Amino acid sequence: MRGLMQDWPLLIHRVIDYAALQHPHRAVISRSVEGPMHRSTYSDVKQRALKLAQRLHKDGVKPGDRIATLAWNTARHLESWYGITGIGAIYHTLNPRLFEDQLVYIANHAGDRMIFLDLSFVALAEKLSPQLPLIERYVIFTDAAHMPQTTLKNAIAYEDYINEVDGDFRWLDFDENTAAGMCYTSGTTGHPKGVVYSHRSNLLHAMSVMMPDSLCLSSRDSVMPVVPLFHANSWSLAFSAPMAGATLVMPGAKLDGESVFNIIENENVTVTAAVPTVWLGLLNYLETSGKVLTKLKRVAIGGSACPRAVTEAFEQKYGVEVIHAWGMTEMSPIGSYSTLKPEVADLKGTALYDLKQKQGFAPFTVEMKITDDDENILPWDGKTFGRLKVRGPAVSKAYFGLDENILDAEGYFDTGDVATIDVNGYMNITDRAKDVIKSGGEWISSIDLENIAVGHPDVAEAAVIGIAHPKWDERPLLIIVCKKDRHPSKDDILAFMQGKIAKWWMPDDVVFVDDIPHTATGKISKKTLRDSFKDFRFS
Ligand code: ADP
């Protein structure tokens, strides 16, 4: 027997319809790329997204067509996602921090028809455009007054583009499994791969992000995604914040510590999210300026392991709850949160921060397992390492245009991460499978060593890579960037680490550098480091 409930496909436009109906005056505040703060509401976002949908439809954009965006987090970028998906077309976020040849590959591979871009990326697009023959038009997120001189094909200011129609338009109807968004993973080996979200996956994921043990979003929150819309689907905040009816604050292009601090305080941000590097910048600014956070309640930190020192500083100095989250582009992207179950709610001091180092437990819609290389399921004892595998309605089952099976016999996707899961379900990433240091047949977690090293008061950033060793196969090398005007010695650093790790995990050497390379999504680029240190030998 079938259920007798209505067919109400989970379509993205229902989110903005809901926000505009129930929370019409809730603010959407952006730091515009032109400079000034811009204020609008969910009601405005909906009206303008409808205009965009109408214009795209009029211009012959069809369901399934890919429309790229190359832009910072602003209301215009947000509207474009709703406008594009409202006619069954697909938003495809381009990450401007990628290498130029990767951007060209991605836009061509996806078959993008148009690019919507910020003023700050016009020069980049002009450089790339000769290699992008499929792009029919460039729409610049600005108005006529700020429109630059440009050679870009059929270039038009976004405001002019949407104002040529009247907004008298209805969203199109289609199946909830229709593709809605595309985002390429950075592809540390080989070409980047296209992840394709559906309307249904985005909505189910957004609901899981709102839940109390996830980011706990409500209409009383003011949510600021510092994580860009172009990084892993903006951790769903473009959908989950309007779904919750929360105020949305879009920080635009300025993501340095001072700018992030000012926007948090001026716009009363209560919840925010980004990778650790952003928070290191903010904490550094607070330390040097003596300023304190007065509004912020929760900060989600993920994308790479959140250093313990960051969690402790936020919670102990500034009274901001840290939610350590883990996920990946292929998971829409969030797969776990370090919020406290009753089993661990009484933990204090070191024990609490030991727990918060873990990436947390999976919400409903994410199933996890750890296995050995022969697919045997490993126990949830907090000690046994294994390959972390996941399945759920917002987890990829294939990559765009690639004919390879990426699921195991039980339908799980291999995350490429190595993890433990403890008896309470808290998962702890010990490494990327390819970054783990294999020493004498045992594994050393580069992430654990980095986390301890950045706890040293003179250390700004730390990275650990495996260096070939004649006896042990590989041994850890610790690479450090010091804080300004601090000059710790190798022995200072190693003495600090002593007692915090097993003796055989101790790095064999420490080198000091001015800069550690990062990937386009703000992670330490181990690949670049391994290349730079390929001739390094322990003395
Ligand atoms: P990209 O490499 O394109 O940035 P993702 O953002 O999808 O791709 O990266 C996902 C990977 O980032 C995960 O598989 C994991 O290795 C790492 N990661 C994400 N969050 C965390 C975290 N909280 N702790 C440790 N590693 C993390």
Folded structure, characterized:
Strand 10 (222-225), helix 8 and strand 11 (247-250) form a beta-alpha-beta unit. The chain has 539 residues and is an alpha/beta fold. The chain is globular and about 70 Å long. Among the domains are: 13-253, ANL, N-terminal domain (Rossmann fold, 3-Layer(aba) Sandwich); 437-532, ANL, C-terminal domain (GMP Synthetase, Chain A, domain 3), CATH 3.30.300.30. It has helices at residues 13-22, 42-58, 75-85, 100-110, 122-128, 158-163, 199-210, 237-244, 257-266, 276-289, 308-318, 349-357, 446-453, 490-497, 526-532; strands at residues 27-31, 37-41, 66-70, 90-93, 114-117, 137-140, 156-157, 179-185, 193-198, 222-225, 247-250, 271-274, 298-301, 321-327, 334-337, 367-371, 386-391, 413-421, 427-432, 437-439, 442-444, 459-469, 473-482, 509-512. The relative contact order is 0.09. The structure holds adenosine-5'-diphosphate (ADP).
